[in-house]
């Protein structure tokens, strides 16, 4: 419903994120059901998109996070999996070398996306910014 309303209203995701004063990627993830949205933001989104209070209520619900296995075949999502399959072990080694024994949080976490012009074709720049969590024994 949200995606259809957004398209019908000719709004970009950034328009909606700006309207509710939320980080772009977080906003889209929330509107796709991956984060609960505070009441005020949910109500503003629904007013912007002409959606009823039942949608605002559902946007505030605690989600079951994850991804539908069928979506894993989507080419864009699959490329992220492929990139982590290839570079994940190297990133893990570099994190351990730089920070020690621990992990990058996906809870205390921000993600951003940007476009960078390049003569070979524009580049997609994805930034993961997660707190380092050291293992404590």
From TrEMBL:
Keyword match NADP: no
CDD domains: Cyanase_C (cd00559)
GO MF annotation list: cyanate hydratase activity; DNA binding
SUPFAM superfamilies according to UniProt: Cyanase C-terminal domain, lambda repressor-like DNA-binding domains
Residues of the Cyanate lyase C-terminal domain: 66-137
Catalyzed chemical reaction(s): cyanate + hydrogencarbonate + 3 H(+) = NH4(+) + 2 CO2
Keyword Lyase among record annotations: yes
UniProt xrefs under Pfam families: Cyanate_lyase (PF02560), CYNS_N (PF21291)
Family membership: Belongs to the cyanase family.
Protein known as: Cyanate hydratase
Gene assigned in the entry: cynS
């Amino acid at each position: 419903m949200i995606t259809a309303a957004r398209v019908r209203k000719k709004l970009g995701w950034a328009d909606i994120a700006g309207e509710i004063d939320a980080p772009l990627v977080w906003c889209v993830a929330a509107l796709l059901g991956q984060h609960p949205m505070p009441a005020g933001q949910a109500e503003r989104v629904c007013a912007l998109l002409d959606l009823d209070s039942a949608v605002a209520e559902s946007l505030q619900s605690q989600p079951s996070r994850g991804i539908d296995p069928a979506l894993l075949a989507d080419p864009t999502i699959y490329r992220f999996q492929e990139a982590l399959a290839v570079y994940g072990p190297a990133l893990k080694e570099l994190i351990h070398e730089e920070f020690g024994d621990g992990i990058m949080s996906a809870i205390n976490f921000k993600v951003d996306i940007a476009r960078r012009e390049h003569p070979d074709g524009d580049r997609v720049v994805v930034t993961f910014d997660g707190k380092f969590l050291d293992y404590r024994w």
